[in-house]
Amino acid sequence: MLINLGLDAVAETVYRGMLAHPGDSLTELGSRLGIPEEDLRGALDKLSELALVRASSDEPSQVHAVNPHLGMEILLARQQAELAAQQQRVEASRAAAARLISEFAHEQSSHSNASVRYLEGVDAIRDYLAALNNQVDEEFLTFAPGGAQTPANMRASRPLNRRLLERGISMRTIYLDSIRRDQPSVEHAEWLTSHGAHVRTAPSLPNRMIICDRREAIIATDSDNTEVGAVAITSPGLISSLCALFESEWHSAQPLGATPAQQPGKLTPQQVTALHLLAQGATDESIAKKLGVSPRTARRIATGLLTHLNARSRFQAGVHAVQEGYLPSSPA
Is 245 exposed, middle or buried (0-12, 13-18, 19+ CB in 10 A)? Predict the structure, then answer.
């Protein structure tokens, strides 16, 4: 009962026993309480340290328990002193934190202006998102390219997503179609939907992006390596354009639970996207990153397109794709 005042269970039992039976010797007390002599002496040392016992005035060889009214006042005063010391440490820490923030404020301003702020490295991005998480009021929109999600990203995002969804925030996320073949990523997406989020997939995405309440967006600075850094944008004009881009991609994306039916002789959305990339001269590695698949899978998709189009080369595949209506006859 008195653990919060610094008394453990054994010490409290001994103190209560001494108060109830002041005439007991230590041997009698230990026998009455069923406490071994070593534990009894340890408890007495603790009680002495807390000033709850002292040598008896009548018999110096005996130990006397301090009156409980005085004893509790001693413990409460001790705890109040510890709390005051802790408060002083908190105030000192707060002052030190304020000095640190002030010291590096110019570093942030050198990378930002009124509507754009640069975030360098994945840790800075995660810190910014954690702070932004508490400011979201209504909506959280996400482009999540890169294919299969890494365990680190899923672990880092789940607590933030849970808090948003528990607050009733509308969350919509678009992943790449390729996550449908990665079970951990599918399970993570299904976890999101089970908590109220809406998830769709698309053959490709332009970049990693998050939009909060249609008033702030975070975009990766390098679409090929999204952990390098990001920019946080608040310009209304840019935000409006990014929201329109998201809605366009959302409209054409497939809900997570849906399985797009492929018509015989037709190309899948992923194949169509790969075909456009091939026509632009993209390498297998570039196609792999865009589709969120391995280079080996990208080569297999390209080989399948050549077979489908009855072409012997990528150039010939482009010609046949135009002839069959898969690609426009001239650049848009």
Answer: middle
Question: Which residue range is the domain that position 33 belongs to?
Answer: 1-110
> Of 31, 28, 71, 29, which Cα lies nearest the Cα of 47?
71
- Hey, which residues does 231 pair with through a beta bridge? 118, 219
Interatomic CA distance for residues 198 and 193, integer angstroms: 6
* Residue tagged 């590096």 (tokens): 104
**Sign (positive or negative) of CA dihedral 208, 211, 215, 216:** negative
Distance (Å, whole) CA 310 – CA 289:
26
Please check whether residue 128 lies inside any domain of the structure: yes
Q: Each residue of 110-139: pLDDT tens digit?
A: 444 557 888 888 888 888 888 888 889 999
Do 122 and 92 share a structural domain?
no
Look at the chain and report how many structural domains it folds into. Answer: 3
Number of other residues whose CB lies within 10 A of the CB of residue 315: 12
pLDDT tens digits for range 137-181: 999 999 988 777 778 778 878 888 888 899 899 999 999 888 888
Assigned domain for 280 exists = yes
261 in a domain, yes or no? Answer: no
Strands 170-176 and 139-144: parallel
135 and 242 fall within a common domain: yes
What letters, b where the CB count within 10 A reaches 16 and e where it falls short, cover 265-278?
eebebbbbbbbbbb
Measured between alpha carbons, how far is residue 15 from residues 47, 56, 65, 178, 265 in Å? 7, 15, 7, 68, 88
- 35/84 same-domain check: yes
Distance between CA atoms of 235 and 232, rounded to whole angstroms? Answer: 10
Q: In this structure, are residues 277 and 164 in contact, taking their beta carbons and an 8 Å threshold?
A: no
Question: Within a domain: residue 262?
Answer: no
- Same domain for 105 and 150? no
Are 133 and 246 members of one domain?
A: yes
| Residue owning tokens 């299969």 | 148
